[in-house]
Specification:
Blueprint (H helix, E strand, L loop, with lengths): L3 E8 L2 H13 L5 E14 L2 E15 L3 H11 L8 E4 L5 H12 L8 H10 L4
Antiparallel strand pairs: 1-3, 1-4, 2-3
Length: about 130
């Protein structure tokens, strides 16, 4: 089993998800996060069953960073009681696991943004 965790949470607004995920990555609590729109959640809250459209966010981190990520996500999250669930990653490609662990521990550089990658590829003549 790897040292990686995939953390699940949901948001009502993409702007909140984007801002918080960026902070988690910038603070080296997460290596990356995927935001999946169009998730329908049915849940019980404040005395009734509710139905809302949300974004599912999958955050990649390590077991060592989990306590700090959990606490920071709880602090930043706009929901009163956000879903914050960590699922152990049974297996992953070794290079990906090394990248996640290396970034969070400070042994690897920050992930390249899509715009930075596009600029680099343009400069290198790939586009």
């Amino acid at each position: 089993m790897s040292e990686l965790l995939e953390v699940h949470t949901t948001f009502a607004k993409i702007i909140d998800a984007t801002e918080i995920c960026r902070k988690l990555v910038d603070e080296k609590l997460a290596a990356c996060a995927q935001m999946i729109p169009g998730v329908t959640s049915i849940y019980y809250w404040d005395g009734r069953t509710r139905r809302d459209s949300e974004l599912l966010v999958l955050i990649k981190t390590t077991k060592q960073a989990w306590p700090a990520l959990r606490d920071r996500l709880k602090e930043l999250h706009p929901f009163d009681e956000p879903e914050i669930i960590a699922v152990p990653v049974e297996d992953a490609s070794q290079s990906y696991a090394d990248w996640v662990s290396g970034y969070i521990s400070g042994r690897a550089s920050a992930p390249e943004s899509p715009s930075e990658a596009a600029e680099r590829k343009d400069e290198e003549g790939f586009w």
